Amino acid sequence: MSTKNLILIALLALYAIFIVYVIYYGPYPASVPLGDPSAYKNTYIHVPIAISSYVLFTAGMIYSLLYLRGKNNRYAEKSYIYISLGLVFATLTLVQGSLWAKESWGTYWNWDPRETGVLLLWFAYLVYLAIRRSISDKEKMLRVSSAYAVAAYIMVPFSFALPYITFSLHPRVQETSQMIGGESAILLPGGILLGIVLGIALAEYLIDLRFNKSRYTRTIAYIGIALNIALLLALAPAAIPHFSGVINTCALDEGSYITIKGTVIESKLIDSSINMIVRTEKCVFRVIAQPEKIPLSPLVIVMPGGNLTLITIESHNIVVKGTVNSTYIVASEIEILENKSVLINSFLYSLTIIGLMVYALRRIGE
Amino acid sequence: MKKSNLIGIAGLILIIVSIGVFTVKTSGYKDVDYLLNINESREVTVEGKVVDIHVDFDKNLVVFTLEGQSGARVIAYYKLDKFQSEYGGLPSHSTVDSKMVVSGLFIPVKSSIYIGEIQIRSILTGCHKAYEAPQVKKT
Hints:
The complex is a heterodimer.
Chain A: H1 3-25, E1 28-29, H2 42-70, H3 73-104, H4 113-134, H5 138-152, H6 155-165, H7 184-211, H8 216-243, E2 257-270, E3 273-279, E4 284-289, E5 296-297, E6 300-302, E7 309-311, E8 317-325, E9 328-336, H9 340-365
Parallel strand pairs in A: 4-9
Antiparallel strand pairs in A: 2-3, 2-8, 3-4, 6-7, 8-9
Helix pairs in contact in A: 1-7, 1-8, 2-3, 2-5, 2-7, 3-4, 3-5, 3-7, 3-9, 4-5, 4-6, 8-9
Chain B: H1 3-27, E1 30-31, E2 42-56, E3 61-67, E4 73-79, H2 80-87, E5 99-108, E6 116-125, H3 128-132, E7 135-138
Parallel strand pairs in B: 1-2, 4-6
Antiparallel strand pairs in B: 2-3, 2-5, 3-4, 5-6
């Protein structure tokens, strides 16, 4: 097996481990303007794929330029593969971004300048694919589509620069000071680098598939599928609590042991206990827990400015198991649920890679 | 590279950038100041700086005061129970001083303090403040 293929397998495995780590242990902002704070783990899932798509489009543009200079058809075909994979990643970026936006910005689509810019970028490169399919003369098709690929590339810097030109819900790099400090200083740039190299390695694999179809390409496809099925299985324990049964009644029987699932809408530290108001689908419960029962660190923080103390469990989705004591629940176990958008976005990444590998297997079989 | 190719690429870049600029300009958010020119009720989407948040439990409302670049202020309110069910808890104080985008029905009001009210249909808030908050992780 070639070094290139071994690198691809290593990258697929590393990226799967990276996703599992950030989902279970990744740090995120303690306080956010809207929704569940843990939804911001999407930063580790969504941003690397988005930047990887930009890099793939850049490589596609360079190969198009090389084709236009030397008329070597191989460059035009490489450009086509890089741009096609860039489009797959850009599609994933748009879908992942929309799911996160629903949680943290309020709606799936906001016509935010960066969102709009990436959508235009996506359409611009769809036109590239249409051009390739609509011209029957091969030489003309390669020339026109390559020239168009170079021109369409302008949307990459344009969409990236929009938050710097106009107000955008997307932050500028300098506004993410905490997110690129502490452990995130390694995780986020590491994830971005990994995403970029993985994107390039996948494109090179697809190029190999087109020109060589070596006997190892099939093995790699199977390993890629297996690794991503393993990723799905590793994430399953985080998804299962979302489907677990909970009580449907608002009535509390004194002394009974119950399980509720809901969102912490208020929390206070009273006499060294955490008093929480938890809203479930149908009602609101008061829950009292000892700090050590809450699996978050730190649990109490002073916000920048020093005038606000925050119990970090606030706004999280949790499952509480405990005993009913007159009008409140004494928690014996608290589980913090991973945000649905983070889980779905991770599943989507995994399914995309599985899809690419199934496509590869079909191409090998042709 | 042929001169005709270069001219073609330059022309396409010009067209694509023009479409991009036009789309972003027409779909971007208007400042609260834009409401100064509106004299009748209408659906709007505006951005402004959050200068105050107030929760009115009796009226079941979350009330935001948004300020435009010229200092013009508008009151924007949202049902508290709807806010809680959609976004989890009460509005976070980390939102104060940050920019916020809201969509809803604007009703002009003749007042020296506020230029009107917005019955919020949806909150499209920014997340910039979130990235400045201290970090937390599961144990």
